[in-house]
Amino acid sequence: MKKYNVGIIGYSWVATAHITAINKSPNAQVTAIYSSRPHDDAAESARWGSPIKTYTDLNAMLSDKSIDAVSITSYSDQHAAQAIAAARAGKHIILEKPMALSWEDCLMIDAEVKKAGVKVCVCFECRYSNQFMVTKALVDTGLIGDIHYAEVDYLHGLGPWYGQYHWNIKKAKGGSSILTAGCHALDAMLLFMGTDVEEVTSYETKSKNPIFQAYEYTTSRVSIFKFKDGRVGKSSAIIDCIQPYYFHTHLFGSEGSLLDDKFHSEKLGTDHHLWSSLAMKMLDTGDVADHPYQAQFDKFFECLLEGADMPLTSLKDGIKTHEIIFAADRSAATGKPVRL
Q1: What is the pairing mode between strands 53-55 and 120-123?
Q2: Residues 6+ apart with CB under 8 A from 38
Q3: pLDDT digits over 134-170, tens only?
Q4: Which of 118, 146, 173 is the last residue of a domain?
Q5: Can you give the residue range of the structural domain that contains 79?
Q6: 295-308 pLDDT, tens digit each
Q7: Inside any domain, residue 146
Q8: Is 166 found in the same domain as 112?
Q9: Do 221 and 177 form a contact (C-beta atoms < 8 A)?
Q10: Is there a contact between 231 and 149 (Cβ–Cβ < 8 Å)?
């Protein structure tokens, strides 16, 4: 069975989680690392337990015909150029969120990937979390009926204690509170409700706490989404909160509701005064080591072997989510609703 050789683009905190998951996959191994900083091949090979060649020239790594795929974990403002270069080099791509910091760049990635015929996995890995896999299964069984309103919120204070704070505060690299982190919540809402969004209205504010004043963009965002069939969703991206990490999920259906790891279902006749509990691993930390990359990457390399598209987090899925993200950004910037 083929084992895919993978090159890492951008050697940082997130890259370490990608390398660990890729190397645990039965169908892939990391054989190369590109970084703007020089690294010792022997030291990196020893660290990761297999031969690794390091590069400070991206084009040199992409020219290596032994590399089948790349994992892009660099700064967000570098994603578009690197993804386009990888596609032109014929490499399959794992692409961290956000795909890019502009809708135009997302469309360029889409065009180049389609031209090259390579496969893409976009890192909305929360779709592969135990929490959201269980939630989606419950929604699909119809136990809470038809969802007419949903709230999915990303609540995570990204202050100086956060590893990426020093660059995340810059608009040219972080973009917005929804692009830098809250996109996971919006993407989850779309997983449960579908992508037929007709209109989005977004509002922004920010904390007065001095530790968040270095941000060059507004750090609290709430967006309201109207779907074509009249349903409504709300997603918040609050990165200036002072509280534990919380991925709030509340789905309201015609036959019941789901709140995080609890639910009520009229179809099951559960007690109106008590929530029923679901046994699931909750999304309760921003530590990338705890993100569900393993399940996502295992599926990606399995799909490559089968010549199939990636389910849940394909390029098509990522493009649709980003279209709605950038509509929300435009609404927040203009103070007006944006129609898709």
Answers
A1: unpaired
A2: 54, 56
A3: 999 999 999 999 999 999 999 999 999 998 999 999 9
A4: 118
A5: 4-118
A6: 999 999 999 999 99
A7: yes
A8: no
A9: yes
A10: yes
